[in-house]
Specification:
Strand content: 25-35%
Number of domains: 1
Shape: globular
Order of helices and strands: EHHHEEEHEHEE
Number of strands: 7
Distance between the termini: 30 Å
CATH architecture: 3-Layer(aba) Sandwich
CATH class: Alpha Beta
Structural class: alpha+beta
Number of helices: 5
Largest sheet: 4 strands, antiparallel
CATH topology: Aminopeptidase
Helix content: 25-40%
CATH superfamily: Gcn5-related N-acetyltransferase (GNAT)
């Protein structure tokens, strides 16, 4: 299976959100209480959710990963904040290298923007994944979701080679 990563297009927004929600509801659910899961990955995905997502108020550079033309992963980076914002893999594609390919592309984009490091608020679920890619856990923190719900997370960082 070959994984390809490309910039997200507007017509990918629904699939992007579906992968995001599925990853949380089927993978991260093992590490978080139901209230966090519901706030982090609400269902159903409404048209207004897609429209709000497409506004992209934070200036995220968004990526999708595909296998055989199907979106199986997503990523987002906010270069102006040196922030790796997101990396999620569809449950059916975990442990197939999709996440690693997404993070490698995010790091390439970061270097293209002359960033010397990336930081992120990792979920507890994803911490081992990021550690395996050379990210370092800086602190245990509480991340606030857009809904106001608090969730346990890990502040992480990786210095990028020039």
């Amino acid at each position: 299976m070959t994984v390809s990563v490309r910039a997200m297009r507007a017509e990918d927004a629904q699939a992007f959100l579906e992968v995001h929600r599925a990853a949380i509801r089927e993978i991260a659910v093992a590490d978080y209480p139901a209230a966090v899961i519901e706030a982090w990955a609400p269902l159903p995905i409404l048209q207004e959710d897609v429209e709000q997502f497409l506004l992209n108020r934070d200036g995220e550079f968004r990526l999708v990963a595909e296998i055989e033309g199907k979106i199986v992963g997503l990523g987002a980076v906010v270069p102006q904040n040196s922030e790796l914002r997101a990396c999620y893999v569809a449950p059916r594609a975990i442990r197939s290298g999709v996440g690693t390919v997404i993070v490698q592309e995010i790091e390439r984009i970061a270097r293209e923007h002359r960033l010397t490091f990336l930081e992120l608020d990792s979920s507890l679920t994803a911490e081992p994944f990021y550690l395996s890619l050379g990210y370092v856990a800086l602190d245990r923190i509480t991340h606030q979701l857009n809904s106001g719900q608090q969730m346990a997370s890990v502040k992480m960082r990786k210095d990028l080679p020039g």
